[in-house]
Amino acid sequence: MKNFGHVFSLAIALMCMVSCASEQQSKEVIQNYAALVLDNYEAARQDAVLLKEAIGKFTTKPSEATHQAAKDAWKKARESYGITEVFRFQEGPIDVIEGEEGPEARLNAWPLDESYIDYVEIDSTAGIINAPSKTLDKASLTAANESGGEKNISIGYHAIEFLLWGQDLSPPGIKQAGSRPHTDFVDGGTAANQDRRRVYLQLCADLLLDDLQLLIDQWKEGGAYRNKFFAMEHKTALSKMMTGMATLAKAELAGERIFVAYDNQDQEDEHSCFSDNTHRDTRLNLQGIKNVYFSLIQGKENQSIHDLVQSQDTTLAREVSNAFELAEQAVNSTAIPFDFAITADTERPKVLAAVEALEKLGDKVAEAGAVLNVKVGME
Amino acid sequence: MRIAYVIFLIGLATLLWKCQKRLLHRAKIGEELSGGTGSVKDATHKAFDFLDRNLHKDNSFRRFFESGESFFNTNWTIEGASSTARDGLGPLFNSNTCASCHFKDGRGRPPIDTTSERGLGLLLRLSIGNDPHSGPIPDPNYGLQLQDSSIPGIRPEADFKITYENISGRYADGDLYMLRKPQYKIVNLKEGPLTATEYSPRIANQIIGMGLLEAIDEATLRSFADEMDEDGDGISGRPNIVPNIETKSEAIGRFGWKANQPTVKQQVAAAFAGDIGITSSLFPNENCPPSINCDELPDRGTLDISDKNLDRVALYTSSLAVPWRRDWEDQEVLAGKKLFTQANCSGCHIPKMTTGEHPEVSAFSNQTIRPYTDLLLHDMGEGLADHAGDFRATGREWRTPPLWGIGLFETVNGHTFYLHDGRASSLEEAILWHGGEAEAAKNSFVNMSREERGQLIKFLESL
Fold first, then answer.
1. Residue A116 is nearest to which of B78, B86, B308, comparing CB atoms?
2. Which of A93, A282, A373, B392 lies at a C-alpha separation of 20 to 30 Å from B431?
3. Yes or no, beta carbons of B119 and A150 under 8 Å apart
4. Is B387 part of the contact surface with chain A (CB cutoff 8 Å)?
């Protein structure tokens, strides 16, 4: 009986040690997440600076070469932005800043009202660019992005994409992106209002930098959201991190972005439809989820959610890792470009397989949450 | 001695039992599950955005749900965009997404400043009369609905302004209350004179539990009706009878403030056409202002939304779970529930019923639900009358709106505006506006003590 008492108190002490240790571990994981977010947004802004410079050169001296350089810079900028989407879906700064709508809709909104911005195939005079009476400055374009209740999308990455590539009117089988000529930006070249088109493009690049800076300000050392995030209970912070992961994997990627397009077979029901770059969006989004789970900062692993799961349930930890591998394989085997993958009969089954693999990944993340006693909201 | 002791104990137990019975209201088993076994236990701002719990593990259903959700949430673009699945906005519209009025699948609100706020969920229906079989008769220039937004190059039809007149009154115990009666003024008319004198303001409804409401048998709804008020309780509900476009037959109307749509799909298609300017096989005609030749507008000559995508949105709209009730075992709430029944609010806001067979989704079939509605039309008195008929509904009749989820509007949508035009800024005001067939119930509320009124409100907040 006496011994039993000893064992009992020892067990209590051990439990406390374990839980204290795991509290310390959780704290580190949460700090690493904040470091990852900041690192990713800073990288996204650096690439956006390069994009702005390339656009500056292109609009100053439009040529095939400067046009191509601007397009390359856009694609590079998307690489660093794509992995940040996992920071959405958890009421973080990208979605909400102090009760106000965050910059997501200004950065990455889709689908785009192309004819709200510039000419389209069926209307050569459409858009703000072709309405010289409309002022072009940052304020007016931001206002136009959310004019009244009607949210016509006029700025962000996809607006820049449209201005650089133009509409993709070729059939998917040809695997060609939009082919706007650089002369759309040359005075006296193709399409009217070239001067306004140049200004519009530059303004969009400027706005991108402003909005990315907002996010950095929230997440940097001493930033308002960072402080708030660190003040949260560990479970709450972990819940946000994992909700972002699971929602992006299952609801957003598998569901809204891939399955919907698969279901529709509408050539351009895809995010980067002008540049045919959607396959990168998909792969980068998945990479972003992986970065959060393994706490991969600049490719280096840190104390992570994976470690937390590992210390609770090694089998499940292995299953989650496995789900990541299968999702990567499935997504990587889908055809490029995306419009071809969703429309060609031989390619469609691979797209559906990717949907299934991403769903499973989302489910596994939810299971991992359950083991950590962390709520993973997914709708 | 021993026997006396036992008798004493039995007596004590009986007394305690009786006291307990008098003091304790008990919740009914399962009454927290407003939307049946598929109800979702969530009371956050996302409470209306969950797939029915009986369906959320069904991957193929869930994918279609997400597909529909994307068409519900994403903005529609002007004709000519690359994403042809999502273009065709306007030319006239109230908003360019479903989600802007049904924000977070919840309840819209009237604009506070009508010049700067649009597309938040209040619109005006217009008519110059009504035919009980073919429905409201459109204004020759403005049609059946005022659209205050338009695509570039086209003028919006008009704007409207709301002014409120304050009406004060007193409860029986002397407490003061204040009601706001709205007046609508249509201004900046762009399409010539307005003939319509009947304006029917309508707030965007929360869209939870729609499939369950669709699954209620017509016979069940008819059993609630008492058109001639044969039971003499002053309540004479009757169904609206409206055309079902797909089956080319008549059916009981279930959805909308005047129950003018028989199915979720038709409701969705009508909203697409009227509110966003999206044509579909059910409503193929573009809403075109007389000053515009819509044939000259950029158009690819096809319907804006395909049948497949329309089905997806209808599926999404059908299958949003109803949230669990909160505090259903709370004594105050239970006292309020009793008052709700005693005042015969439950005469129209029927608490409980069982659904029949849903033609497509078995998860909606044979569910015991607690929607607090009969889906029937009732004369609500002059105070609420819009004087606009809508099929069988007269200008004084409204459909009993379901009360499930009503306690979460503030959490989900950040406001407490109730009734068809959002005039009531609290639940008390919403009750006080009741008249006509609900006059007696309203008077019961007016005669309640402050404590009782508080209990009734607490009950409503738990729904």
1. B78
2. B392
3. yes
4. no
Kindly give the interhelix angle for A224-231 and A234-246, rounded to the nearest 10 degrees. 110
Which residue of B44, B82, B146 is the best one to mutate when testing the A interface, meaning the one whose CB has the most A CBs within 10 A? B82
**Residue B297 is which amino acid?**
L
Contact at CB, B118 and A150, closer than 8 angstroms: yes
Give the pLDDT confidence score for residue A20 in this predicted structure.
60
Q: Which residues pair with A85 in a beta bridge?
A: none
The mean pLDDT value for B25-31 works out to 94
CA distance A292 to A304: 8
For residue A114, the distance in angstroms to the closest alpha carbon of chain B comes to: 6
B117 touches chain A (CB under 8 A): yes
> pTM for this structure?
0.85
CA distance readout (Å), B115 to B96, B149, B204, B289, B398: 18, 12, 19, 22, 29
pLDDT digits (tens, 9 = 90+) for B266-309: 999 999 999 999 999 999 998 888 888 887 776 656 899 999 99
Whether pLDDT at B221 is above 60: yes
Six token digits for residue A42 = 């800073």
Q: What is the per-residue pLDDT across A196-250, written as a single tens digit (0 to 9) for each? A: 999 999 999 999 999 999 999 999 999 999 999 999 999 999 999 999 999 999 9
Q: Do B152 and A120 touch (CB under 8 A)?
A: no
What are the Cα distances from residue B84, in Å, to A105, A116, B87, B269?
Answer: 21, 15, 5, 18
Give the confidence band of B86 by pLDDT, cuts at 50, 70, 90: confident
* Residues B98, B312 contacting (CB under 8 angstroms): no
Question: What's the half-sphere exposure (Cβ side, CA atoms, 13 Å) at B311?
Answer: 12
DSSP assignment of B259-288: T-BSSHHHHHHHHIIIII----SSS-S---
* Position with higher pLDDT, B335 vs B83: B335
Mutation target among A180, A264, A338, A367 for the B interface, most CBs of B within 10 A: A264
DSSP label at residue B418: B
Q: Give the confidence band of A1 by pLDDT, cuts at 50, 70, 90.
A: very low
Determine whether the interchain pair A377/B46 forms a contact, defined as Cβ–Cβ distance below 8 Å. yes
- The 3-class secondary structure across chain A, one letter per residue, is CHHHHHHHHHHHHHHHHHHHHHHHHHHHHHHHHHHHHHHHHHHHHHHHHHHHHHHHHHHHCCCHHHHHHHHHHHHHHHHHHHCCHHHCCCCCCCCEECCEECCHHHHHCCCCCHHHHCCECCECCCCHHHCCCCCCCHHHHHHHHCCCCCCCCCCCHHHHHHHHHCCCCCCHHHCCCCCCCHHHHCCCCCCCCHHHHHHHHHHHHHHHHHHHHHHHHHHCCCCHHHHHHHHCCHHHHHHHHHHHHHHHHHHHHHHHHHHHHHHHCCCCCCCCCCCCCHHHHHHHHHHHHHHHHHCEECCEECCCHHHHHHHHCHHHHHHHHHHHHHHHHHHHCCCCCHHHHHHCCCCHHHHHHHHHHHHHHHHHHHHHHHHCCCCCCCC
Token pair recorded at residue B152: 């570039």
Nearest CA among A295, A326, A316, A319 for reference residue A372: A316
Beta-carbon separation of A266 and B120 below 8 A? no
Of the candidates B71, B87, B118, the beta carbon closest to that of A149 is on B118
pLDDT of residue A150: 46
Cβ separation A111–B120 shorter than 8 A: no
- Whether residue A264 and residue B308 make contact (CB cut-off 8 A), yes or no, is yes
Of A122, A149, A356, the CB nearest to B100: A149
B63 to A355: CB separation less than 8 angstroms, yes or no? yes
Mean pLDDT of chain A: 91
Closest residue of chain B to A123, computed from CA coordinates? B298
Per-residue pLDDT averaged across A364-371, rounded?
96
